[in-house]
Amino acid sequence: MTSRTTKSRTKTKRSRALAVTTATLLAFGGGTATIATSGAQEDPSEVSTQQPPSEDVQLPERNADEAAQYAADIVTDIEQSPWTDVGAMKRDYDPNQSLSAITLDVEEAHGGTPRQTALFAGSHYIGTTTPEAYPFQTTERVSDNVIKVNYRWLQPGDVQTEPSGSATSYYTLHPHGIERTGTLPPEGVGVPPVA
C-alpha cells in the first residue's frame, strides 16, 4: 500500500454540492453564506455549508503545479481510482485572479474517464464545481471572477470519443459565495459503476 493510497483513504468527505461556503467567506471577509444556484438539474436540498480544510485557511501562495497537487490530495476520490495532478488541466489557474480552476484526472486516465474541476479563490482551494465527476469536462476563463465549465457525456449511439450530450455552467465568485448559472448533465451520466 503506497502512501498515496493510504492518504486517499483518509480524506474527509467534501460537500455534496458547491463546496465553496465558509472557505470563500474566510477568504473575503466573513459573513453569512448565501449560495445562489440556478439550472434545471440543481437540487437545492443538496447545497450545504462546510468548514474548509484547516490547513488551507492561511491563504497559501501556490503555483499551478502545487495547487493541482493540493486539489488531487484533498478532493474525495472516486471508487475507480484516486485523483492525480498528472495531466491536470491547469490553463485556467492563476493565483492572481479572483476565481481559478484546475481539472483533475484519475490515475491512468483516458478520454472517457471521470474528471473533477477544483475551484480556487486566488490560490486558496474552495471546493469542486459538482459532487459528481464527469468525463469530457473542460473549463474556460470568462473573466477574473467567472469560470465556464463545459460538460459533455455519451448518449446512446455515440462513439466513445465523440460525446453528443452537452451542458454549460458558469461559476461566478461574489463576496457572498459562488453562484452557478446554466445547466448540469442529467443525473447518472457521470462516473460509471465499478464492475
Question: Radius of gyration from the CA trace?
Answer: 16 Å
Q: Separation of termini?
A: 22 Å
Number of domains: 1
Shape, per Cα inertia axes: globular
DSSP helix fraction: 10-25%
Strand line-up in the sheet with most strands:
1-2-3-4
Mean pLDDT: 73
H-E string: HHHEEEEEEEE
Structural class label: alpha+beta
**Content of β-strand:** 25-35%
Specify the number of helices: 3
Low-confidence stretches: 1-55, 191-195
The biggest beta sheet is recorded as: 4 strands, antiparallel
- The overall strand count is 8
Q: What can you see in these coordinates?
A:
13% of the residues lie in helices and 29% in strands. It has 195 residues and is an alpha+beta fold. The chain has one domain (3-182). A 4-stranded antiparallel beta sheet has the order 1-2-3-4. A hairpin with a 2-residue loop joins strand 3 and strand 4 (124-128). Residues 1-33 form the signal peptide. It holds the Pfam family Lipoprotein_21. Keywords: Cell membrane, Lipoprotein, Membrane, Palmitate, Signal.
